[in-house]
From TrEMBL:
One of its GO terms (molecular function) is electron transfer activity. It comes from Gordonia desulfuricans. InterPro entries: Flavodoxin/NO_synth, Flavodoxin_CS, Flavodoxin_dom, Flavoprotein-like_sf, Protoporphyrinogen_IX_DH. GO terms for biological process: heme biosynthetic process. Pfam families: Flavodoxin_5 (PF12724). This is Flavodoxin-like domain-containing protein. It comes from the Bacteria. Signal peptide: none annotated. Residues 3-169 form the Flavodoxin-like domain.
Length: 170
């Protein structure tokens, strides 16, 4: 499969996940291209597309949301996969177990993923935890993060990323 992996990032942890997915898929024999969503305008050369973004304020980054709208007429019949990178993923989180459980159960889907489902053939949508450093937050966000008991660092679960890439193969 000629696979295109498109992503949007603010601080780089989503880039790492996009690159890991690419390496996994290449190992399975796919021809893979990785590109920034904001720099992509043509999808003709690809059989399938993985689209992902960091989450800010519960939504994909504006550049990703705009790109999903801009590219909507080009998805056609291509299989699509979506991934979101935020504070709480399917297996890991910036927060303790209790808060993670409570928040995970009421997390809605970003609007851009709903748009993707509406305009294309989404096979699966997944949420990964990313990475966070104190300097990433504006002042109020830093205080809120501390109050909520957040932990700084890299919460990416590479086994989870590998397993998701494998599920795409299946
Ligand atoms: C300004 C800001 C807002 C954020 N808002 C959210 C949010 O609403 N929900 C969430 O799960 N994570 C949120 N995060 C955490 C990021 O999604 C997380 O750090 C992610 O790994 C960032 O990806 P990136 O390194 O590719 O930019 C926020 C981070 C920042 C800096």
């Amino acid at each position: 499969m000629r696979l295109l992996i498109l992503y949007a990032t603010d601080h780089g942890s989503t880039t790492g996940i996009a690159e890991r997915l690419a390496a996994d898929r290449k190992r399975h024999g796919d021809e893979v291209t990785v590109a920034r969503l904001r720099e992509t305008s043509h999808l003709d050369d690809y059989d399938g597309v993985i689209v992902g973004s960091a989450i800010h304020n519960g939504q994909w980054l504006p550049e990703a949301t705009h790109a999903v709208d801009r590219l909507s007429s080009q998805w056609g019949d291509k299989p699509l996969w979506a991934f979101s990178v935020g504070s709480i993923g399917a297996t890991t989180s910036f927060f303790g177990e209790k808060r993670t459980k409570a928040v995970r159960s009421r997390m809605g889907e970003p609007k851009a993923v709903a748009t993707l489902r509406h305009t294309g053939h989404v096979q699966d949508a997944h949420r990964f935890a990313g990475a966070i450093a104190p300097g990433d937050w504006p002042g109020a966000g830093r205080v809120m993060f501390r109050v909520m008991g957040g932990h700084y660092g890299d919460a990416r679960d590479w086994d989870e990323v590998d397993a998701w890439a494998e599920s795409i193969h299946a």
